[in-house]
């Protein structure tokens, strides 16, 4: 992995680099954090605030190759979440090459703006659309996805910020805020249930209908990851469990014991009026106790 400086000042530095054979990306070093971003997928791969261990999990067996989604970090599921007709899982945004629009480094954070636009990208979603992402990486991390319908008829999208969080083990983690919320269980097909989630060991695949902040409490690492959503209506909590993970070529052996996905999502169709920008986002904070 060779790299060269794109931007540097007294607060931090951003290098351009290559992941795998040919995936272009950014290495970020700031007084408050380190991070990696792939332009393929417009995907934040890692973010590690100073004096904390890594927050985002990235598989050691991720395939950094065009046509494949990168396993880990925060893949963007868009313009659909989950399977859609015969279009495959999670839409196409995570397999597009995004453009780097700007970098700004100040004492608090590194701000990176990425963008992508396309038309007739997929037969199931031939519309003209533009995406923009604002990534503010410092002591906390704020991600905003802007979406614009660049055509002249109303569209619907669904999507998720599919964050893979590093944990000591999923069985050591709870997300108490979700306990009273109704959820749809994607494994059993049952909808609208409530039940205590005692831990996050997989197989687990639930769509919670809850639009407020959640906290992942890792009892072993004594760490809390708080996620504050913006304009999302659901949380998806996913861990494949061992039997499924062993069939996934891009999850390294035992990797399923290292992460829990907690995804700020709009899992059901949301209006995308012509010519207007809409957003979804999240802010991630870490604390140790
Ligand atoms: O393997 P993919 O396409 O990245 O999807 C991973 C998982 O993503 C989650 O969001 C879904 O709820 C799961 O059903 C899915 O298995």
TrEMBL record:
Catalytic reaction annotation: alpha-D-glucose 6-phosphate = beta-D-glucose 6-phosphate
CDD domains listed in its UniProt record: D-hex-6-P-epi_like
- According to its UniProt record, the EC number is 5.1.3.15
Quote the InterPro entries the UniProt record gives. Answer: Aldose_1/G6P_1-epimerase, G6P_1-epimerase, Gal_mutarotase_sf_dom, GH-type_carb-bd
Is ATP-binding set as a keyword in this record? no
Top EC class of this enzyme: isomerase
Which keywords does this Swiss-Prot/TrEMBL entry list? Isomerase
Keyword hit for Kinase: no
Q: Which SUPFAM superfamilies match?
A: Galactose mutarotase-like (SSF74650)
Q: Which PANTHER family match?
A: APOSPORY-ASSOCIATED PROTEIN C-RELATED, GLUCOSE-6-PHOSPHATE 1-EPIMERASE
Which family is this protein grouped under? Belongs to the glucose-6-phosphate 1-epimerase family.
Q: What is this protein called?
A: Putative glucose-6-phosphate 1-epimerase
Organism expressing this protein natively: Thalassomonas haliotis
């Amino acid at each position: 992995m060779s790299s060269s400086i794109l931007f540097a000042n007294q607060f931090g530095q951003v290098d351009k680099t290559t992941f795998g054979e040919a995936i272009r990306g950014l290495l970020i070093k700031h007084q408050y954090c380190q991070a990696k971003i792939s332009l393929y997928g417009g995907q934040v791969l890692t973010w590690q605030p100073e004096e904390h261990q890594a927050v985002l999990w990235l598989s050691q067996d991720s395939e950094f190759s065009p046509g494949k989604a990168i396993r880990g970090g925060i893949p963007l599921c868009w313009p659909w979440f989950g399977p859609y007709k015969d279009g495959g899982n999670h839409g196409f945004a995570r397999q597009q090459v995004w453009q780097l629009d700007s970098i700004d480094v100040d004492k608090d954070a590194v701000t990176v703006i990425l963008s992508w636009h396309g038309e007739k990208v997929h037969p199931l979603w031939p519309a003209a659309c533009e995406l923009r992402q604002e990534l503010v990486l410092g002591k906390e991390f704020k991600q905003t996805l802007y979406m614009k319908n660049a055509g002249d008829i109303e569209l619907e999208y669904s999507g998720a910020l599919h964050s893979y969080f590093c944990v000591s083990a999923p069985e050591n983690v709870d997300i108490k805020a979700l306990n009273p919320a109704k959820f749809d269980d994607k494994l059993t097909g049952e909808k609208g249930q409530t039940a205590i989630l005692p831990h996050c060991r997989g197989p687990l695949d639930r769509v919670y209908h809850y639009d407020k902040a959640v906290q992942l409490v890792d009892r072993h690492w004594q760490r809390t990851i708080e996620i504050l959503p913006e304009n999302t209506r659901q949380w998806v909590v996913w861990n494949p469990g061992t039997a499924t993970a062993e069939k996934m070529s891009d999850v390294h052996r035992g990797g399923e014991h290292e992460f829990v996905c907690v995804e700020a999502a709009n899992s059901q169709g949301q209006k995308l009026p012509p010519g207007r920008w809409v957003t979804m986002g999240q802010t991630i904070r870490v604390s140790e106790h």
